[in-house]
Amino acid sequence: MSELVPVPALATRREFLLTLMCGPLLAGLLGACSVPRRSAAGLAQESGWLTQLFRDRDAVARFGNAYLQAHPAERRADALSAAIHEALLRRQPGALDAADPATAFRTLDAVVRDEYRRGRVTSVDGWLLSQTEARVYAVVALQQPGG
Amino acid sequence: MYTDAIDLPDHSRFDVDLAIIGSGPAGITLARAFANRSTQVCLIEAGGLAYDARVQSLYEGESAGIPYPIAGNRMRLFGGSSNHWGGFCRPLDPIDFEKRDWVPFSGWPFGIEELMPYYEPASVLVEIAPGRFNDKTYWEHATGETIPDPVTGRMQLRYTHFSPPTRFGQRYGDDLKRAANVRVLYNANVTNIASLQEGRAVQQLDIRTLTGLSHSVRARIYVLATGGLENARTLLLSNKSVPAGLGNQHDLVGRFFMEHPHLSGFGEIVVADLRRRPRAFTRRVEADGRAATAAFNPSEAFLRERRLLNATFLAGEAGPYYGYTRSDWAKAPLHMDMLRAARPFLADGSGPVDSARPDLLGEWLGLGCACEQVPNPDSRVTLAGERDLLGLPKIRLDWRLTEQDRRSVVEHMRSLAMEYGALGIGRMLLGVEDDGQWPAEVTGGAHHMGTTRMHDDPKQGVVDRNCRVHGVDNLYVAGSSVFTTGGAANPTLTVVALALRLADHLKTRLG
Ligand SMILES: Cc1cc2nc3c(=O)[nH]c(=O)nc-3n(C[C@H](O)[C@H](O)[C@H](O)COP(=O)(O)OP(=O)(O)OC[C@H]3O[C@@H](n4cnc5c(N)ncnc54)[C@H](O)[C@@H]3O)c2cc1C
């Protein structure tokens, strides 16, 4: 288990959104992400933005790998991303247009909550997770080195 | 007045109007309802005014089914098990009284409306009044926090209240002592309910002390209030004129024993941003001198739709996680990884969830559940071969649970996980495999129900809607043994409400 990296004091939602967008200063502070340049088509063709959501990707990968082990047929990042994007677009047409991960995350969060509400859940390592949430973790796992 | 049966001359006899056997919450409530009236009352208690291990040993018995601490789960002294109850109080739910076609043997002879007038005075007696069991607005106002409504349609919030907890003997003993018409006869074990006319009327109570004395009490009306297990045993022991036991003409006495199966460690919830979970979800919150906590219960609509049994879930804060690995708890790494993974869904921003504790990762909640079990004739109390210090057969309990009970609770656990997820508060780890097995950790809650169940049909119940033993003109039963089904609420508030209702009935009958 890795030690927790000291958390930078980014208390507000706005700062979080900035982090998601990975401004150079914050990116440096987090020592983390390098955001791929986004096409005019927004995020729809990308899965990198999903990975950017998480700081501790080892932890995410743990659950993503557990999900993939139980669902080996889903072991394809592009197909998983497509399924996730589809879920987002079903909820909010245009959710991925903005090239803005923060907006997309808001829709993702709403999708995840709604899946819990409707019982669209799956068991991962004993945890009951929303279907889309589990797939997001799986995408992150596949994009980890060796994933 | 108080009378120690040990100080009486051998073969003493008392003649009264109303004899109540047992001084737990049921017996004391009943006796108190008659205090300072013209009715002469004798409240007969097996134990003394303080705990005595020899007396308590009379409660020992044989557990033949799911392991059960038969003596440890009740107390034989003045005040009964209220001497160590936890004080959790909540009325039964309306659906608990209904005949549900998916719950065999369900259906009380009346609906909750029959008990409603008694729940409020019962709340006064257990010192939680006025009850605010469903009043979210009240608790929001009291705590200054928004309490989110469940959103899955599967669950609803109810507020379990905490009695101080009221020790009935200490709290109401003086009322009885002062009442000229009430005699509390203690150290007096009722060993036989002697009946006439092949059990159609009770003639007297035979009483023995552990010092070898024999006494008797005669009354116009008798009420058996010795607790949910002992009520059945006492009827079965009263077999001199009816070999199967008094009131047992249809072989129902002792059957249908129900508990609220309690499962601890069936799951845990992790919460990252503590501001997202109101304190009432995990703690006792106080207002106007009363304390309560929010309980998750399945909604009535969900119970009907999925044909499930009732349940109650409570959560408590088990411990925080900081940004370093805890080694004292095997599940810590798993919990902490989930807190890290699900963090974007569980907290706003990427900064600390608590600025006063910058390295706080979140906390985990321990969960407890108490579930309804289906009334089951094979789950039962009988008499054991072994005898107690008075030479009487000990109790034998064969507590059983069914697959229907298990499937129901597993589904509700999933509902709880969904609710916390849908509210964006936490993620739940389920520790119960859906493998057809009850987990070994299943215990009871010291809630002993159903062994003298209430039903209008003598072939389906031991007592009628007035709690009178079918076929016995002057014998009544008080306590949770009369519950037809157990619901998922702790029983004592309902026990007290039923005792108050019985008092009203007996006042009319005794004139
Ligand atoms: C550890 C524990 C925690 C609990 N927590 C809760 C809780 O939080 N909430 C809740 O609702 N309930 C709780 N309960 C259950 C609660 O205590 C009972 O529901 C309640 O005490 C039942 O009241 P009663 O009067 O029917 O029976 P009891 O309290 O059992 O009283 C029966 C009385 O009869 C006497 N007696 C027995 N046999 C004879 C005899 N042959 N002759 C004369 N007298 C006899 C006994 O000595 C006793 O005093 C708890 C119980 C225990 C043990």
What portion of residues of chain B is helical?
A: 10-25%
Largest sheet of chain A: 2 strands, antiparallel
Distance linking N and C termini of chain A = 18 Å
* CATH superfamily annotation of the largest domain in chain B: FAD/NAD(P)-binding domain
Figure out the total of helices of chain B: 11
**What proportion of the residues of chain A is helical, as a percent range?**
55-70%
Briefly say what this structure is.
The complex is a heterodimer of chains A (147) and B (511). Chain A has 147 residues and is mainly α.
SSE diagram, text form:
The complex is a heterodimer of chains A (147) and B (511).
Chain A: H1 13-21, H2 24-30, H3 48-52, H4 57-70, H5 77-91, H6 101-118, E1 121-124, E2 127-130, H7 131-143
Antiparallel strand pairs in A: 1-2
Helix pairs in contact in A: 4-7, 5-6, 5-7
Chain B: E1 2-4, E2 13-15, E3 18-21, H1 25-33, E4 41-44, H2 53-57, E5 61-63, E6 88-89, H3 112-125, H4 136-143, E7 155-162, H5 168-178, E8 182-186, E9 189-196, E10 201-208, E11 214-218, E12 221-224, H6 230-237, E13 262-271, E14 285-287, E15 290-298, H7 300-306, E16 311-322, H8 332-341, H9 343-346, E17 360-371, E18 380-387, E19 393-398, H10 403-422, E20 426-430, E21 475-477, H11 492-510
Parallel strand pairs in B: 1-8, 2-11, 3-4, 3-12, 4-8, 5-19, 12-21
Antiparallel strand pairs in B: 6-7, 7-15, 9-10, 10-11, 13-17, 13-20, 14-15, 16-17, 18-19
Helix pairs in contact in B: 1-5, 1-11, 3-11
The complex binds flavin-adenine dinucleotide.
